Every structure is written in structure tokens, then in C-alpha cells.
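User: I'm putting together notes for a lab meeting next week and I want to include a structural view of one of the chains we've been expressing. I don't have a solved structure, so I'd like a prediction I can at least talk through. The sequence is below, exactly as it appears in our construct file.
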Amino acid sequence: MAFAKEKAKTAKPKAVLTPQMQEAVKAYGDIFAQRLRQEWRLPPRANRRKLQAVVMVVIAKDGQIKETTLVEPSGDRLFDSSLMHALKHVGGLPPTPGNKEVNIATVFEL
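Assistant: Thanks for the context. Below is the predicted structure for the 110-residue chain, given as C-alpha cells.
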């Protein structure tokens, strides 16, 4: 949790988005989350209790994932590893809204 707070302190200031752009970014985040869920496979030995992890993804304007960070691990190594593996295989994202780099935080739950 301390890492997440520190990361937030060092993040670049965000531009103010119009309501239309906010909706477009939200819809883009939904597309990303759907693709991530399609790629994700829980390893058979992973703990099946309720788990949650938070990832931060930076997506270039051409739709390529530039950076992934596990901001809040779930506490289950296999779950977190499978999530990060899925992030590496999310592909085919459309160009970002407004042709700008997009930062997306996604909560991933089991």
C-alpha cells in the first residue's frame, strides 16, 4: 500500500478531460479489462479464496502496452504471476482516445 501512495506522489499531473473524453477513456478501459480477462488463466494450484490485485497499465496512443505495474498484489504469488502473464499477452488494442497515452488502473478479482 505504501508503494501505491508513493507512486501517486510521483505521477505526472493529469490534464483535465472533457466529459466526452472521460467517457471515451472509460470505454477504452472497459475494452482493455475485457481483453485482459480473455487472456487470463488461473493456475490450477492457485489459492481459490477471494483474491484481488490492482494493476496500472500505460498504453501508448497506438494501443501498445508500454508499462505494467502490479500496484497492489493479491498476496497469492500464482494469482499475481498469472495476471502479469496475461498482461503481456493482451494485444490488438485500438488506438487510444484522443490519440493520447492512457494510464489505466484495473482491479482484478477472483
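A couple of points you could mention at the meeting. Residues 36 and 90 are 6 Å apart (CA to CA). Residues 19-39 form the longest helix (21 residues).

User: Perfect, that's what I needed.
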